[in-house]
Amino acid sequence: MYQVHAGDGGGIGRICGRQLSVQALHCKAGTDKKIDELCKRKVFGEKLLQYDKEGAFIVYYDETNFNLYCKRTQGRAPVGERAVVTLLPSKGANLQLQCAVSPELGLVHYAKQRGSIKMEINAAFVDDVYDAVKSHETYRIHFSGKKIVIVLDNAPAHSQTEELVQARNDLELLRLAPYSSMCNPIEGTCSRYALL
Questions:
Q1: What is the pLDDT averaged over residues 39-55?
Q2: Rounded to an integer, what distance in angstroms lies between the CA atom of residue 101 and that of residue 104?
Q3: For residue 83, is it within any domain?
């Protein structure tokens, strides 16, 4: 059916009179998500600028885990014997660190715990951040009556935050656009902890 000539074995052949080369495949996505992501990032930026114009108190929130597991690679043993270490079957729970910062106060609130952060714990942390901001003297003097905007990412622990946080008239939760960690200043700090 097809006229195939293998050529000289150098990876080049002819099919139906066309010269073709054999190459590694390049995978291309079926849809272009880049435009959609840029639109979502623009909407996020416009909302953030609008809250800033309104004089809202903006808080950036993120969490990270810190792996406490430590395994030795070298040990001491008498000459002629093997250095042996007994390992537990599990590496144990990670240390989770939640932080909220603002340009006006710096560190607003933080919490640490062992194990994963569940949605209820995340919602309680957001409530604690709100209470910490409201009780701070800087908020009472310069931002009284203004909204508190908490910027958070799209982590799985945040998936139901809006439903679980106590309803308040002066609290807004603003989600980052996908792949927009550069828009949340605390993301860089938390990513440094993850590298330790």
A1: 91
A2: 9
A3: no
